[in-house]
Specification:
336 residues; Serine Threonine Protein Phosphatase 5, Tetratricopeptide repeat; globular
Length: 336
């Protein structure tokens, strides 16, 4: 949808806003503090302040002091962006990337990410790097992605530090360098980035780019798992399952696998199937195992083979019950 453009308030309308702000009406005495802030921000925005135009867009985007309206938010972001205000350029780019308040337009998103990035906005630099990495809105260019990630990471952006670590670990845009990957993962992890915490844990667990240290790996998995990251929850469950970096505890493993499974993480579905098949942390139950293998088979080919192998060992009654349970489990996750 095209972005409408606002015209400045007439002198009469502007006077009306001033009257409200200065307490010249009963309404001014009853509005909340946050609505008063909205009115002050709008007054400055219509007078041409790019900073206030951006802030007003944020208030509309979040519904603070006014009814939420993403279309109007994008309109105010555009006004400030065209005035060359970098935070608004980044905000507008995000609108175009997500199709929030405007029609989704990856190319327009890249255009505004670039403008903000060239002003030195670290979030925009990271987003522009991601666009180059994925080829969304621009031709994929791994080396260019690394260039923007590096600029953002040097400014302390934790997401970019994690992305740069990924590039070094997997050799995307740079020669593979596991030790350098660990350096960037660690910086990002210390700043609280859950993806980096999990990736650092994986490096520590397997000894990639750093000496093996399963105990430290568990500590990073635990931090990321507490943030709700399903990959980390599954990894932490596996550490409890194997007794790596922590005492073996099948029940605790199942607890973490279940948390990851509830977030539709296929590897956790397979791990729960293994636990139910063998009675690890839960009563042995081939029917329940079959159901989890069946669910995992939608994402993992080996899970389908495991389900079929299990079925050969089951009685007709067990198979019927398992198929019924599998359907129920599939419907449960389809509803999410």
């Amino acid at each position: 949808m095209p972005i409408r453009r606002y015209h400045p308030l007439s002198s009469g309308a502007l006077a009306g806003v001033l009257a409200i702000l200065l307490g010249g009406s009963t309404e001014a005495k009853t509005v909340s503090g946050i609505h008063q802030e909205f009115l002050k921000t709008k007054l400055e925005a219509v007078k041409g302040s790019a900073e206030s135009q951006h802030r007003l867009g944020v208030l509309y985007e979040r519904g603070l002091g006014i009814a939420k309206d993403e279309t109007v938010a994008a309109e105010w972001f555009l006004r400030a962006a065209e005035a060359d205000y970098a935070p608004a350029q980044y905000a507008l780019a995000r609108c175009y990337r997500a199709g929030r308040g405007v029609a989704k337009d990856p190319e327009a998103a890249v255009k505004w990410f670039r403008k903000a990035a060239e002003h030195g906005d670290p979030d925009a630099q990271n987003s522009l790097g991601y666009s180059y990495q994925t080829g969304i809105g621009v031709d994929a260019d791994a080396a260019e992605a690394v260039r923007w990630f590096r600029l953002s990471a040097a400014a302390g952006n934790a997401a970019a530090q994690n992305n740069l670590g990924f590039c070094y670990k997997h050799g995307h845009g740079v020669p593979p360098d596991p030790a350098e990957a660990v350096t960037w993962y660690r910086q990002s992890a210390k700043a609280g980035n859950a993806q980096a915490q999990n990736s650092l844990g994986e490096c520590l667990q397997s000894g990639v780019g750093v000496a093996k240290n399963p105990v430290e790996a568990v500590s990073w998995y635990r931090a990321a798992a507490a943030s709700g990251l399903p990959e980390a929850q599954d990894n932490l469950g596996f550490c409890h399952f194997l007794g790596q970096g922590v005492e073996r505890d099948y029940a605790e493993a199942v607890r973490w696998f279940t948390l990851a499974a509830d977030q539709r993480f296929p590897r956790a579905w397979a791990n729960l199937a293994i636990c139910h098949a063998n009675g690890y942390g839960v009563p042995k139950d081939v029917v329940e195992s079959y159901a989890w293998w069946n669910l995992a088979s939608t994402e993992m080919e080996r899970a389908a083979r495991a389900r079929d192998d299990l079925e050969r060992l089951m009685s007709p009654a067990q198979i019927a019950a398992a198929q019924k349970r599998a359907k129920k489990l599939k419907n449960r996750f389809a509803a999410h």
